[in-house]
């Protein structure tokens, strides 16, 4: 699995962090999402897919 975030689209809602806190975080200065890892372990796949689904800006892309 490979994850990318379009930081220009991110609206800093934090939904991704709540869905997958081991994979996503937010920058302190503006709240924009950042990846803690772009290739998380397989057991986090459901959380990552959920994070992408609940992103209000659709800024997260997940490739299998």
TrEMBL record:
GO MF term set: 3 iron, 4 sulfur cluster binding; electron transfer activity; iron ion binding
Keywords: 3Fe-4S, Electron transport, Iron, Iron-sulfur, Metal-binding, Transport
Protein role: Ferredoxins are iron-sulfur proteins that transfer electrons in a wide variety of metabolic reactions.
Metal-binding in keyword set: yes
Protein name, as recorded: Ferredoxin
InterPro entries: 3Fe4S_ferredoxin, Fe-S_cluster_ET
Names of the cofactor(s): [3Fe-4S] cluster
């Amino acid at each position: 699995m490979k994850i990318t975030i379009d930081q220009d689209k991110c609206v800093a809602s934090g939904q991704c962090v709540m869905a997958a806190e081991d994979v996503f975080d937010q920058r302190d200065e503006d709240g924009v999402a950042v990846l803690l890892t772009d290739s998380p372990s397989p057991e986090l796949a459901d959380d990552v897919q959920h994070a992408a689904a609940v992103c209000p800006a659709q800024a997260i892309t997940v490739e299998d």
